Amino acid sequence: MALLNSEKIRLGQPVKNFNLPSVDGKTYTLESFKGSPVLVVMFICNHCPYVKAVEDRLIRLNAEYVKKGVQFVGICSNDYTDYPDDSPQNLFQRWAEKKYGFPYLIDTEQSVARAFGAVCTPDIFVYDSGRKLVYHGRIDDSWKEPSQVERHELREALDALLAGTKPEVSQHPSMGCSIKWKK
Fold first, then answer.
1. How far apart are the first and last CA of the chain?
2. How confident is the model at residue 2 (pLDDT cuts 50, 70, 90)?
3. Which of 5, 80, 84, 121 is least crowded, fewest Cβ atoms below 10 Å from its Cβ?
4. Mind listing the domains of the chain with CATH numbers?
């Protein structure tokens, strides 16, 4: 397991377009989410202990914020040849079992992860209504122990956007396993 921090990406960048299948057989594009004023794109996977540690928090955030117009989207870009937990079948099984509540897309060619500049799981990108990057960072300040969280940075960013303001410019990178790139 190679631990990485997310790359520093300049805020204000436009969201990258995508056209990806979902674990449930549907296909989604950026246009599929045009009705949502806030878009949260998360590069996640099944096998990473960092994703597993925050998975329930992401599911709860989605359940709370979808009612407010925030669209969460999960994308798995890992090469599942050496990581079978991240195969489409296993992604579907976990998505259904945990009741994610948001589309879980499969980036088999890894082109979407590269376009976004994603390098780890989880790697979280938040876009405003103009689809400009306004937040790229961690979920909160304690990935491992939910009871020790003091700052809920993703929540704060979403609340700021919904209140018509911008999130803080000072943002902490997320950290997690490296995306498993094809050889």
1. 16
2. low
3. 84
4. 3-178 (3.40.30.10)
